[in-house]
Amino acid sequence: MSAAATTPPADDAELAGRHVVLGLSGGIACYKSAELARELVKAGATVQVVMTEAAGQFVTAVTMQALSNRPVYTSQWDARAPNNMAHINLTRDADALLVAPASADFVAKLAQGRADDLLSLACLARPIERCALLLAPAMNREMWAHPATQRNAAQVAADGAVLLGPAAGDQACGEVGDGRMLEPQELRDALIAHFQPKLLAGRRVLVTAGPTYEAIDPVRGITNLSSGKMGFALARAAADAGAEVTLVAGPVALPTPRGVRRIDVRSAQQMHDTVLPLAPRHDVFVATAAVADWRPAQAAGHKLKKADGHVAPAIAMVENPDILATVARLPDAPYCVGFAAESHDLVRHAREKRQRKGVPLIVGNVGPDTFGRDHNALLLVEADGEHEIGNGHKLALARRLVVEIARRLPAAGAAR
Ligand code: C5P
């Protein structure tokens, strides 16, 4: 896996109802396209595979047919279509055309508008305004860095294609550098992101996530059971909705969502010191982190040892700063959203928390039911009352929350 690993897919099929044409041009990365086809199908898409002759040198049409559950198109002379115009028909009911891998030669062909095989014909003949063309380049690093390829890539992007990657890393040729095709799950997620309404385009969103860790001594500390999953899902949903997202994460091992800037911190104080200068430069602040309320007043410089007589050490505690309340009080505060994880009396506690923190919106969830899990149930608590946004996978809920937040923001360009 490349460094930018992906969030696991929501169990709601996020590509349900989408018809995707998956094109393969010639390159060793074709072996990953088999898994990509499977990922797209698992995410609910119908997938029509089109292969160039060169792609057929790397993976067979039999494999791709078995995985996509549809006969594969390999030739512009395919007589199966009654009108014999496969190159036109292919994209008429498609929501997107994804070429993965897109070889250097294929990108060059597209840059010139050439169309001498079925896949390049289909790219040229697609209805440009409603069937996006996404390209996942894959080639040797020298081929990618070559000025001709760079020129061609810039040209196809200017013509409206979306370039996904390439990533840097080990290459099949044994060299290391830019040119690796993105992993199948990354391409799946990029396609899912492509289909999300860009409700937060032009907005900057700051998210805190995960637990904090408050050191007692060099080897022990106080933390909590927050997994960070809700905050990471929210960062991903906001980025997919077009926002520029900064994620300040406590100690969790989750992969960074694609396109999100992540800053890792450990303690509440570090989270506070990181968030405060960033907050005024953001339009929205969502505090999902389970920040420790207290920390040991003084972390011991050496590991505490069992004293004679086994007397437990008394650890003096001091209160941590309340990050959300502090940000909400800033004169140029972003739109602030807090989370309330309660074990009982959710509505009462969430209402009280909203007042105390001085924020317009608190999202309530029952902590013990959701910590570490993939599912959650959310309740929105604001000045004029409460309403549920239902239960489900955290990513699906995060997408719903993004819709709710976008609806509450002042129009872009309006003074805060
Ligand atoms: O006060 P309580 O921890 O219950 O409030 C929860 C909300 O406040 C969450 O949004 C959490 O991220 C935020 N919070 C914070 N800084 C703290 C404590 C909580 O930002 N020190």
Your description of this structure?
The chain is α/β, with parallel strands linked by helices. The protein has two domains: 18-194, Flavin prenyltransferase-like (Rossmann fold); 204-407, CoaB-like (Rossmann fold, 3-Layer(aba) Sandwich), CATH 3.40.50.10300. It is 32% helix and 23% strand. The protein contains 14 helices and 19 strands. The chain has helices at 30-42, 61-68, 86-92, 104-112, 118-125, 141-145, 147-158, 184-194, 229-240, 268-278, 323-329, 346-357, 367-370, 394-408; strands at residues 19-24, 46-51, 96-102, 132-137, 162-163, 167-170, 176-180, 204-209, 214-215, 221-222, 244-249, 261-264, 284-287, 294-296, 317-319, 335-342, 361-366, 375-382, 385-393. The strands form five sheets. An eight-stranded mixed β-sheet has the order 12-11-8-13-16-17-18-19, with helices on both faces. Strands 2-1-3-4-5 form a five-stranded parallel β-sheet, with helices on both faces. A two-stranded antiparallel sheet has the order 6-7. α1 (30-42) links the parallel β1 (19-24) and β2 (46-51). α1 packs across α8, α3 (86-92) packs across α5 and α9 packs across α14. The longest helix has 15 residues, at 394-408. The chain starts with 18 loop residues before the first strand and ends in an 8-residue tail after the last helix. Mean pLDDT is 93; it is low at 1-9. Bound molecules: cytidine-5'-monophosphate. Cytidine-5'-monophosphate binds next to α11 and β16.
